[in-house]
Design goal:
heterodimer, A: mainly alpha, 84% helix, disordered C terminus, B: Rossmann fold, CBS-domain, six-stranded mixed sheet, four-stranded antiparallel sheet
Chain lengths: 290, 342
Amino acid sequence: MFPDKLNIPLGKSVNALVDWLVVNYGDAFEAFADALLTVLVWLEHLLRATPWWLVIVVIAAIAFHASRSWKTTLGLSLAMVAIGMLGLWDKAMQTLALMIIATGLSVIIGIPVGIGMAMSNKLRAVMVPLLDMMQTMPSFVYLIPALMLFGLGKVPAILATVIYAAPPVIRLTDLGIRLVDKEVLEASRSFGASRAQILWGVQLPLALPNIMAGINQTTMMSISMVVIASMIGARGLGEQVLTGIQRLDVGQGVEAGIAIVLLAVVFDRIGQSYGKRSQRTTTTGAGDGA
Amino acid sequence: MSYIEIKNIYKIFGPHPQKALTMAQNGENKDDILAKTGHTVGLQNVSLSIDQGETFVVMGLSGSGKSTLIRHLNRLIDPTAGEILFGGENILQMTTPRLNAFRRAKLGMVFQRFGLLPHRSVIENVAYGLKIQKTDKAERLKSARTWIERVGLAGYEDSFPDQLSGGMQQRVGLARALTTNPEVLLMDEAFSALDPLIRSDMQDELMKLQSELHKTIIFITHDLDEALKLGDRIAILKDGALMQVGRPEEIIMNPADDYVRAFTRDVNRSRVLRAKTLMQPTSTGNDTPANTTGWPEVDANMRLEDILPIAIACPDGISVVNRDHQKIGTLSKDQIIAALAA
């Protein structure tokens, strides 16, 4: 047996910290939660109020813009129709709203952090273990304190999703910038480009294929969080899976599971097509594929 | 004082260069310093003076520090110790904004692997330096177009770099460096990645441009033939230290040590040596015009390879004349053969 004397009461300190945060900063957390909730609720209303065919038309338009392929566009539209035919359209829109907000937040936080990591080895040394932790820590561990700080519902679900889904876009932004050809950077510097000119004119455009791959992975991971998020009160497709399991209604679980997969496929194909296009413009010029 | 003065530059690579620097300044050997401190000596006490308008070639094998040296001139790398002066101004004391302004106004650089922006078209690449300077778009595209034409790439304005051959990409690199009209052109192994024939074309192109533009060119190469062809003066670098600095003929005729001599052994001497280097100078006092009547005249700057056929046709001798057709010396067939055989 490991001697008890050497035990560190880490758990107690964490409890004390969370209590202290709730007591002293409860209002601030609530205000933040309210702001996030307002945006989410607005988006959810918008998606649910929009006629189903219009949503499909918009998704088809985005799919075509990304892929320039009628086949892909048709396939993805059919996937959305299938979700509706499973009777899960409304739930899917709730999930979609949650996903868009969580992914958007991940990207807004992730790209600047990734840029910072590429610029500073010190920040990188701090961030890499932190990102490892974010990806491996069981999500329930941070769901519970999130619940205590933000209450039950959508906001802790979004935050948990961001913690889980942001690492890929951060890592790939960092990697993409670090992979930019050293001689191209030297050329840019030798012409007297400022740091901002190098970042916007050289580093970000050349890192774009990697950043797009990161955004795509982040999107996929945020979809995979919907079931866990439903356990703390987020509505949507995850909720269907959860109640299906609770009532031993396998059929309902499978239906909702398929809908989640279809949604994931739609976003993956769109994301990948954008990734490929950005690659084409950075390596062989304006899409002629020479 | 020369236009560019490099004074006692040391460059030590590693996290704590100070101790290694002291050792290097005490003249210790590069390998000993690496063994004792784990630091690599990149440049060791390099001092050079480069004049405005000259083509100055730095020659050395890989690892000799030549690419490190050229990067000191625009401070892509900062030295561990020493001074670098441009027209009397110490560039090492410049703040970042001042340095960027200096790079924009005075310097252009051409890279071994071209360093072109892969996501920008040829014309955008060529206009890049002006874009950095926030020049008006119409104006920068106009100058870019002029230079694209001048390096022989008219018609390729909207191509992307990876659609061009290596030689064409380097023409883009050259045009890009020239578009900002810099005083100084830094060329880091600019032609080394090209096929021999293309390389020779580019060398001729550069010499032609230089005869019109009179830039100060600092050219890095590992190829002595290239150095001898392009350079007004050549510096030979080994293990971060200067071995010899001199005009091409001086390097060939009087190599400073065995290292330089080993380099020059395989050089085609007839391409480097000129009439004025070999000739027997005519002192104005004992000029004997009678002896030389009927001798063919050659220009003092003519290369041996061009004189050779004349020498074979006229075994008596050749007169060497300067630009004003005044006779300044004589050459005999024996002298030429001796120079070639050396």
